Amino acid sequence: MGGAENSSAQRVCGQPKVHSTRIVGGKKAEEAEWPWQVSVRENRVHVCGGSLISSQWVVTAAHCFEGPLKPAEFRVHLGEYELPKPAPTMVSSAVSKIVVHPYYAGDGLSADIALVQLEEPVNSSRTILPVCLPSTVEPDPFPVGMTCSVTGWGRLYPDASFLTRTLQELEVPILGVDECNNMYQNDSSTETETVPEGYKLIYKDMICAGYPEGKKDSCQGDSGGPLACKKNGTWFLAGVVSFGLGCSEPNRPGVYTRVTSYMDWIQRTIAENAALHGGSHLSKANPATFLLLLLLLGFPHMGGL
């Protein structure tokens, strides 16, 4: 849908009110320019980025959660801009559930995606707004060559020992899967590992974005954050920051989990949890009304691209 919606129960996504003319070579974002960007905190420390996709759900990377899942140790900060100086509009939410994709088996592998359920729904505001999820009807909504944006608080250069204070943004072009595989089999200018010829590192459920010459890339601390693409005035979530060999090295573009490959899982997981733990305001509705409200509230993006 993207634009204004007919029912007050529905929510607009992907349309921030602010428009400006692990990020290396990017620039400082404007406050409220990327209102779906969240900071995932473990024991108060920023560990990953993430994207708000509805009033109560965040998409991030599976590799952000190691060992037994303990939701009580995590919080999600929404409306963040400068990490050391939280804005008055920042919302810190407890986490009620973490769902790591069941097929995820380790760093650099497929299914590097997770869903985080906030303890309570958050209200949309100037600084907090969901990004739209892509349509599963269109075969390739984010074609090779399309320019998209990655955002995060990751390191500004590969050897930095600290995260950046202020949210950064970087424009990157989408690369083809085969092209990306070939790039990783080429030598880099540094000592980053080279993938053996014929070995497949990039799969169809991944999406690459970046530059052959390097210098601009996501980096440590950006993991789980959004790769967002703008279509017809609305921003859609194309990828989740996953991995790379080094940061900003030649022939080592950033690799992202392809969101369109996991839309069924995202929708099913949210629907199952909504049905199990539905709010009391829906409990008295008849089944048909309940299903309609569930679709409207949970999936504001269903109108497609």
The end-to-end span amounts to 7 Å
Q: pLDDT below 50 for ≥5 consecutive residues: which ranges?
A: 1-10, 21-25, 157-162, 279-305
Q: What Rg, in angstroms, do the CA atoms define?
A: 18 Å
Strand content: 25-35%
- Fraction of helical residues: 10-25%
How would you sum up the global shape?
Answer: globular
Overall mean pLDDT: 80
Give a quick account of the main beta sheet: strands, pairing sense, barrel closure: 6 strands, antiparallel, barrel
Helix/strand-derived class?
alpha+beta
Strand order of the largest sheet: 8-9-10-13-12-11
The H-and-E topology, N to C, reads as EEEEEEEEEHEEEEHH
Count of extended strands: 13
Number of separate helices: 3
What does this protein look like?
- This protein is an alpha+beta fold and 305 residues long.
- Helices cover 11% and strands 26% of the residues.
- It is built from three helices and 13 strands.
- The strands form two sheets. Strands 8-9-10-13-12-11 form a six-stranded antiparallel beta barrel.
- The longest helix has 14 residues, at 263-276.
List keywords for this structure.
305 residues; six-stranded antiparallel barrel; globular; disordered N terminus
Concise synopsis of the structure shown:
By secondary structure, the protein is α+β, with helices and mostly antiparallel strands. It has helices spanning 177-184, 263-276, 287-298, and strands spanning 27-28, 37-42, 45-52, 57-60, 74-78, 91-100, 114-118, 147-152, 168-175, 206-209, 226-231, 234-243, 254-258.
